[in-house]
Design goal:
heterodimer; A: alpha/beta; Rossmann fold; 2 domains; four-stranded parallel beta sheet; 18 helices; globular; disordered N terminus; B: alpha/beta; Nucleotidyltransferase, domain 5; 3 domains; five-stranded mixed beta sheet; 14 helices; 9 strands; 13% strand
Chain lengths: 435, 437
């Protein structure tokens, strides 16, 4: 697609978003009719998801935290969470979990309004979030379905060793694949896996190109608020499909066209006029007030040029690609390399690199009230990155999908203060340079 | 005269500072925040301009031999007399509004008995007014709503006996009327009020009675000064609602950082405990903010907490600190939840704990919470400046000093008597720098 040709960048941008929306809706349709059509359903999580492997068994993929996220964006999570709390889950429990459990308690109707049938297998690829494990325990208790668990060793020393890889591959061979064969009744075909992985690698190339376009000034994308859309297909039920490869090619063309025209990111209120502040952001966004939250940034000319959240479903920008030549090993490397599986020093290194390579003016943490797994150590990271880069750091607190924990006035107040602090420092730096 | 104005619209009070081109503070003004933010800002600004006139008047009288050795006394009396004139004027306004409110048939107070009762109440308020503003007198609050409200309630309580009109009905009339009166903006700086105050000051003391003619001309000079509002900067929680364009708005973090630096140039760390937020700010040697942390979604442990405790104990806010200082044995209190505070207080009282020990424990609890926010911002560095309404509370200051020493060693801790104006001072300095630099 060529934006320059018809001079309608906003419409072109919406095209890729519409394409993605169609993919998501089609997946919800597929989930709703799966059992009627004799297909089996697997539930799995975003970080460390083995989508290509699941596709080898014709399993329809359900991602509970995406359902929670969608419920948040569609203003349904508040009711689900209260339902889960009535069921005895405390206020401090991860709100993705409560949204999912509440949705189940309210009749298993998914965010699109279609039924979400009971999964046939829960595949847990454990990549650093302890809550995921407890979540599936609760779901298994409710559905009494089969569970397969892949233990992914934590990258405590910041590197993947041969033994780690071997351990994961052995589990894939001895535990996960046999379980998937048993549930689906389909024999594993490694060449089919290679085919999907080859598609994944193509899409990953284009995704990385899109995310790295933010190194330009002005950046043609917002790598956090826009970024969550860009990483949607590849992080969820679609990685390895031809549709996804096509989506990323289309997205890359759109972004390339905006880049050629020197245009900034497209926001819900149209193209961003002026890029005043470039940020690196750590932590997930708030989903219940996603647009209000975004507006607090673009109204002040603040744009996110890199974020860690767009790496939770896979870190591709330091060279990793799914490799069809080594199918099981590459799946192991993918899981081991997920952002959530990185140690704090490795996360600091990565974010510091982003600050430098993306010419950021500041580093912002959005700490999630109900996510201890992600939030632990964030202040430490903030201090370290502040010290290493000399750039101002900011800290705000919201939640994933509990609308009660998003206080617009508070968040706006802190963000405005933070942005003004950055501008004040920049102005002083400029004055010194001029002198 | 060029002036630069900073307005800090807080959740409890609205403050204003007026600077001249040399960054000299000419005046400070404060009022209670209210639903009409524009009025709150206008009143605070007007109060600051009034204060500026007193400041300039003092400068002009400095060299007057007739006031040699008694200038402070004279100006102290004069300001009190001016406040009395202001109070009487607003009282008159309030009486009219109360009579009109009482006439509302829905209240059931529209008969002649209520009018007579209101006349008696307001007569007493007028009679009592001079005592409130006597030289050296201390009031629980300087805001009209608080002073008049307390006097009105006392007078109503005694007059309603046997009148057939309930005390609640009288309070209802007041509540309906006070908002209208305090939201009616009046240019308080009119010459006649100043002159009446001067007349009152000179006539009531033999020390000043012969000075009336000598002082009229200098006062007239000051009143003739036209203040040009060269640039205004708004800050504080309600800043977005101020009727200013975006370039006239600064975040309170930046303003508190700069304001603390102006007050105490060696400031490195600032703690501000306001009505609904607690801010820990690290600034560089020029007062530029390097990092900050604030309380999260919950306002537990902020100034409102102490206000709530004071209400629960039927005390004035300013009485809490001195009471806590009487404590010999602090009660350990963990919760800083404002909603739970009342229950916690009653529970401790029922266990036989002394009021002063409980209040001391409550002070410690809020400062412990502030310490957590401070540590998140990077800790306490030398020098450490404590600002905001809570910095006026001696018990809070004492606990903070103790905990700062325990956790960070010896640091110089600044508590400015005008610390409540820190944000407004920062805002006014930004205003001055926009134009002058």
């Amino acid at each position: 697609m060529n934006i320059a040709a018809n001079q309608q960048p906003d419409v072109q941008k919406e095209d890729s978003m519409l394409l993605q929306k169609a993919m998501i809706n089609a997946n919800y349709e597929a989930l709703a009719s799966a059992h009627d059509e004799g297909k089996k359903i697997s539930s799995t999580f975003v970080p460390g998801n083995l989508n290509e492997l699941l596709m080898c068994f014709d399993l329809v993929r359900n991602l509970p935290e995406i359902n929670a996220l969608q419920a948040g964006m569609r203003k349904k999570s508040g009711g689900y969470i209260m339902e889960a709390e009535r069921g005895g889950h405390s206020e401090d429990v991860c709100t993705y979990v409560k949204s999912d459990l509440g949705m189940m308690a309210k009749g298993q109707v998914g965010p699109s309004g279609k039924p979400l049938p009971t999964p046939d297998i829960l595949l847990l690829s454990y990549t650093g979030c302890f809550t995921f494990m407890k979540w599936f325990e609760l779901v298994r208790d409710q559905y009494d379905c089969e569970t397969a668990m892949l233990h992914v060793p934590y990258q405590a020393d910041g590197k993947v060793t041969k033994n780690m890889r071997k351990f994961v591959v052995a589990q894939l061979k001895e535990q996960v694949i046999p379980a998937l064969e048993r549930v689906s009744g389909i024999k594993f075909d490694i060449d089919r896996l290679r085919g999907y992985l080859a598609e994944s690698a193509k899409a990953e190339d284009d995704l990385v190109w899109v995310l790295q376009s933010a190194k330009n000034r002005p950046t043609p994308i917002d790598a956090y608020f826009g970024g969550v859309y860009y990483c949607g297909p590849i992080f969820t039920a679609f990685r390895g499909t031809k549709d996804t490869t096509a989506y990323y090619r289309a997205l890359r063309d759109e972004v390339a066209a905006r880049l050629d025209l020197g245009l900034g990111p497209v926001t819900p209120d149209g193209a961003m006029d002026e890029e005043r502040i470039r940020l690196v952001v750590e932590g997930p966004p708030n989903w219940t007030h996603f647009r209000d939250f975004w507006k607090m940034f673009y109204d002040e000319g603040a744009v996110v040029v890199a974020s860690s959240y767009t790496k939770v479903g896979g870190v591709y920008d330091f060279g990793f690609r799914h490799d069809p030549e080594h199918p099981l090993e590459t799946l192991a490397d993918y899981c081991l390399g997920c952002y959530t599986n990185h140690s704090l020093p490795a996360r600091v290194d990565m974010l510091t690199t982003y600050m430098d390579e993306y010419s950021a003016d500041g580093f912002l943490v959005n700490s999630i009230k109900s996510c201890n797994s992600f939030s632990a150590g964030q202040l430490l990271m903030l201090r370290e990155i502040e010290e290493r880069t000399g750039k101002p750091a900011g800290f705000i607190e919201t939640d994933l999908v509990d609308p009660r924990y998003f206080s617009p006035a508070n968040v706006k107040n802190r963000l405005e203060s933070y942005f003004q602090m950055i501008e004040q420092k920049k102005a002083r730096g400029n004055a010194r340079t001029a002198a | 005269m060029k002036t630069f104005i900073g307005i800090d619209l807080g959740s409890t009070t609205t403050k204003a500072i007026v600077l001249d081109s040399d960054e000299t503070v000419l005046g400070r003004g404060i009022t209670n925040s209210r639903s009409n933010y524009k009025i709150a800002a206008d009143v605070a600004r007007e109060e600051a301009f009034l204060d500026a006139r007193f400041f300039l008047f003092r400068k002009q009288l400095n060299d007057l031999p007739a006031l040699d050795g008694k200038l402070d006394e004279f100006l102290g009396n004069f300001e009190q007399d001016f406040r009395l004139e202001q109070y009487l004027e607003q009282l008159n306004d309030l009486e009219g509004v109360c009579v009109a409110s009482a006439a509302d048939k829905r209240l059931g107070t529209d008969g002649p008995d209520t009018r007579a009762l209101l006349a008696d109440v307001f007569q007493r308020l007028n009679d009592e007014a001079p005592t409130l503003f006597e030289p050296g007198s201390r009031r629980q609050s300087d805001f009209f709503r608080d002073i008049a409200g307390s006097q009105y309630a006392n007078a109503s309580e005694s007059f309603v006996q046997g009148s057939g009109i309930s005390f609640e009905a009288m309070l209802n009339i007041y509540d309906r009327s006070i908002i209208e009166v305090e939201n009616r903006f009046d240019n308080s700086a009119d010459e006649s009020k100043f002159m009446r105050a001067l007349d009152r000051t000179c006539r009531r003391s033999t020390r000043f009675v012969n000075l009336l003619d000598k002082l009229r001309a200098p006062l007239k000079n000051i009143l003739d000064i036209r203040f040009e509002e060269t640039y205004v900067v708004g800050t504080g929680y309600g800043r977005a609602t101020l009727p200013f364009s975006k370039e006239h708005i600064r975040s309170e973090i930046l303003c508190h950082g700069l304001g603390a630096h102006i007050m105490h140039p060696k400031t490195a760390t600032v703690l501000d405990i306001g009505g609904q937020d607690t801010k820990a700010i690290q600034v560089d040697p020029d007062g530029i903010v390097e990092s900050f942390q604030m309380n999260d979604r919950c306002a537990a442990g902020c100034g409102r907490y102490l206000g709530y405790i004071a209400d629960e104990m039927n005390l004035g806010l300013h009485e809490l600190g001195p009471m806590a200082m009487q404590s010999k044995r602090k009660v350990r209190i963990n919760s800083t939840c404002t909603v739970f505070a009342g229950a916690e207080l009653r529970d401790r009282l029922s266990m036989g704990e002394k009021r002063e020990d409980i209040v001391a424990g409550l002070h410690r609890a809020i400062i412990l919470r502030a310490m957590s926010i401070l540590s998140r911002s990077g800790g306490i560095r030398d020098q450490f400046t404590f600002t905001g309404g809570v910095a006026k509370n001696e018990a809070a200051v004492a606990v903070l000093k103790e905990l700062a020493f325990e956790n960070y060693g010896e640091v110089v801790m600044n508590v400015n008597p005008d610390s409540i104006y820190t944000g407004a001072l920062g805002a006014a300095t930004f205003a001055q720098r926009v134009v002058v630099h």
